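Hi support team,

I submitted a single chain yesterday and got back a structure, but I'm not sure I'm reading the token output correctly. Could someone confirm the output below corresponds to the sequence I sent? I've pasted both exactly as they appear in my results page.

Thanks,
R.
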Amino acid sequence: MLWLIKNPYPMADRIIAISKDVKTSLERVGVDSCRMVVIHNFIDHRVIDGSKGPTLPIPQDKRVIISEGRLVEQKDFPSLLRAFAIVRLALDARLVIIGEGPLRKQLERLAGRLKVAGDVLFTGWLANPFGADPQASVFVLCSRYEGFGNVIVEAMACGLPVICTDSPGGPAEILGNGAFGKLVGVGDVREIADSILEVLIDPVVQETMRRQSLIRANAYRVETLAPRYLEGLDASPAPGLLPSPEI
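Hi R., thanks for writing in. Yes, this is the structure output for that exact sequence:
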């Protein structure tokens, strides 16, 4: 990756960074900041709004925590499982993990050791995960780092309250530094568990966060961000840092 950055990148007229942290990281390895603009990823709300995905095999009266991502170290699903084990002591809840990866067997064994295997559903990869989101009460992402975090915006567009680790990359930008969702410490199992419990127990908190998610997701519509690509690729002098979408 470093070779790709140091060789082809200088030939580019523009370099689009998907978060401010990505831009800063590129600057650290010598990429000219005048060539870069920050433009967040966008989502197509039409795809999400029209989705009819699989119904999860979970009773409708259960509180459901949902997470999504490749089952790799970066996503830190062990911390999520340990936090869920704490939540499960207080509430009759279920955890749904959407995604596939090399750590699946290891994570399944960990769920067994934590005595929550019967309450954790590993769905594997789903072609259309959005249909499962309406069954959930909260979306949680425990990544150690993210370039951007598309699944966060997708969950918000589905009206889910979001809890996310304050990891390097895009999560804090997406959540407006905590204005539109809860930011928790990376690997802080107790804080993750306490935040999940607050959302699941307090209907006022849950409904407030749902509204915040829907509002914030509107900033990432394709029709909102596509014009920024035209600005970023314009032949005029490099505009530097384009402002992130603000609400």
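A quick pointer for reading it: The chain has a mean pLDDT of 88. Let us know if anything else looks off.

Best,
Support desk
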